[in-house]
Amino acid sequence: MKKILVANRGEIALRVMRSAREMGIKTVAVFSEADRNALFVRYADEAVCIGPPPSSQSYLRGDKIIEVCRQLNVDAIHPGYGFLSENADFARKVRAAGLIFIGPSPESMDMMGDKLSAKATAKKFKVPMIPGSDGAISDVNEAIKVAREVGFPLLIKASAGGGGKGMRLVEREEDIEEQMKLAVSEAISAFGNGAVFIERYASGPRHIEIQLLADNHGNCVYLFERECSIQRRHQKVIEEAPSCVLTPELREAMGKCAVDVAKACNYSGAGTVEFLVDDKLNFYFLEMNTRLQVEHPVSEFITGLDLVKEQIKVARNEKLSFTQQDLKINGHALEVRVCAEDPANNFLPDIGKLLVYKTPSGPGVRVDDSFEEGMDIPIYYDPMISKLIVHGKNRTEAIEKMLRAIDDYRIVGVETTLEFCKFVLNHEAFVSGKFDTGFIKKHFTPDVLTTPQNMELEEVAVLAGILAFNDSATKSGSASADGVKKSKWKENRLN
After folding, report:
1. Listed residue (23, 24, 49) closest to 38, CA to CA
2. Which residues in 84-195 belong to E strands, given as ranges?
3. Cα separation, 360 vs 402, whole angstroms
4. At what angle do helices 418-426 and 395-408 cross, to 10 degrees?
5. Less Cβ around it within 10 Å: N or C end of the chain?
6. Are 113 and 158 in contact (CB under 8 A)?
7. Beta strand 491-493 with 46-51: parallel, antiparallel or unpaired?
8. Are 159 and 193 in contact (CB under 8 A)?
9. 249-253 own/partner pairs: CB under 8 Å, 24+ apart
10. Taking the CB of residue 493, how many other CB atoms lie within 10 A of it?
């Protein structure tokens, strides 16, 4: 494997390319017109523009991506996460073109990509399940019948996809019909599949997931767990490893269940099995993600492994170089997603220019991003600017280090989730470990972020940022009209 194309953008594309370069592998970036000046494009050995900004005309064009591979003699494709990463049809086309897909087989994706299929597969291995419907439900009367058996509150969930789309909380029987229609409509819009099912809504739930690695020779290990319960709109904001509530016995039991799920679908590569853990520490299977997760760096910190390198090794048909007994938890890691969102306005996405952008540093501090000062936040994609990850010898040290890193992070020009993350990390419920997926609903109100002092500091920072940016743009002879330096890489363009 001498050359890899990264079929993605932003921080994950750059993160994959760095590991590939360390392995002596050349990289190819594909990009939309909106990402022409992005860092990942400049970092790659070769870069090809594949279309206009909308994902449907660029990053989701599997045919164009495969054509780039043919033109540039690429050996393998790394899909990152999102976009085509869990698209079984794309994986089949990649293999049919004689290329290596750095991920699981299309057959594994098919079995685990649909939540109902995944639940049926896991059930064969007696993995604990949340009470609910056995399959998809399309009839309202049938839904009411199942709801009475399951009990309220309950969730109506889309069978395809994730990210909280097509998911509705129902607390009363009379709301089932309306919420079911909304869930089906949203599922069709997001995934092209309107199948929904019913699950009991667990009280005080925590979202805990198990990281897996499996090779093509029957070996599979779990890299412990990640706590992902701090969420907004069913999407994660803060993750940590390990979880502060799991005992060694519970960790082992969940790990073995996750391995059973992987073996049930003949899985290979990096994957994640997600569980719901209730307030009595009972755990239930949710789904399997057949790709690298956004929050994978916290698992890398506590295990000392590079998951992207491990993915590439598995794709080269190498055996895992370690066993379950070789793996140990080293310290504690935290990750916050730095998103261009306004927490004071229901976390709505924000757009604009990064007038000031200074990342934190120091021992045990890592920033995965693909932005620099002066760049615009595109309106076409996920609003995540970066992932800020820290590692400490224990949870207390990790929290203290993260708070320092957040204070050292300087972003002016867009609203971000940094202050919200700082609020969470300082909150007694988080510090004590007594929290669940309802943290925001229980503890957060926008007024905690909008103090006069914060507003005054922001105004000063904005003014300073504008002056500094305009000054650097004026002095730089290589700057373009909008102050962004021209890149030096030679662009290829696929027509």
Report:
1. 49
2. 100-101, 154-158, 167-170
3. 10
4. 150
5. C
6. no
7. parallel
8. yes
9. 250/281, 250/283, 251/224, 251/225, 253/283
10. 8
Out of 9, 226, 232, 291, which one is annotated catalytic?
Answer: 291
| Peptide bond connecting 297 to the previous residue in cis, omega within 30 degrees of 0 | no
Q: Which residue has the higher pLDDT, 33 or 160?
A: 33
Q: Residue type for 37, please?
A: N
Residue 56: partners with Cβ closer than 8 Å, 6 or more residues away: none
Confidence of residue 125 (pLDDT cuts 50, 70, 90): confident
- Residue 291 appears among annotated catalytic residues: yes
- In this structure, what are the phi and psi dihedrals at residue 288, rounded to the nearest 5 degrees? -120, 135
| Angle subtended by helix axes 62-71 and 88-96, to nearest 10 | 30
Q: What is the pLDDT of residue 465?
A: 54
Could you tell me what percent of the chain has a pLDDT over 90? 76
Separation of CA 373 from chain center = 24
Q: How far apart are CA 285 and CA 306, in angstroms?
A: 26
Question: Would you say residue 425 has pLDDT above 70?
Answer: yes
Neighbour count for residue 367 (Cβ, 10 Å): 18
Question: Within a 13 Å sphere around the CA of 451, how many CA atoms are in the beta-carbon half?
Answer: 8
Residue of 48, 84, 44, 92 lying closest to 68 (CA atoms): 48
Contact 118, 167 (CB under 8 A): no
What would the two tokens of residue 471 be?
């000054």
- Residue 38, pLDDT above cutoff 90: yes
Q: Long-range pairs for 153-156 at CB < 8 Å and ≥24 separation? A: 153/201, 154/198, 154/199, 154/200, 154/201, 155/198, 155/199, 155/200, 155/201, 156/180, 156/183, 156/196, 156/197, 156/198
Residues whose CB falls within 8 Å of the CB of residue 439, separated by 6 or more in sequence, listed in order: 229, 230, 231, 424, 427, 429, 430
88's tokens:
């079984």
Q: What is the pLDDT of residues 432-491, one digit of tens each?
A: 999 999 999 999 999 898 644 344 445 555 555 555 555 555 444 433 333 333 333 434
What's the angle, vertex CA 395, arms to CA 391 and CA 401, rounded to 5?
50
Q: What is the pLDDT of residues 251-271, one digit of tens each?
A: 999 999 999 999 999 999 999
Cβ(216)–Cβ(314) below 8 Å: yes
Distance in angstroms (rounded) separating the CA atoms of residues 140 and 197: 11
Note the pLDDT tens digit of each residue in 321-368: 999 999 999 999 999 999 999 999 999 999 899 999 999 999 999 999
Work out the mean pLDDT of the chain and round it to a whole number: 90
Contacts of residue 452, Cβ cutoff 8 Å, sequence gap at least 6: none
Look at residue 458 in the predicted model and tell me its pLDDT: 53
The owner of tokens 């960790």 is: 251
Query: Percent of the chain, pLDDT > 70?
Result: 90
Measured distance CA(141)–CA(129) in Å, rounded: 24
The stretch 418-426 carries a mean pLDDT of 97
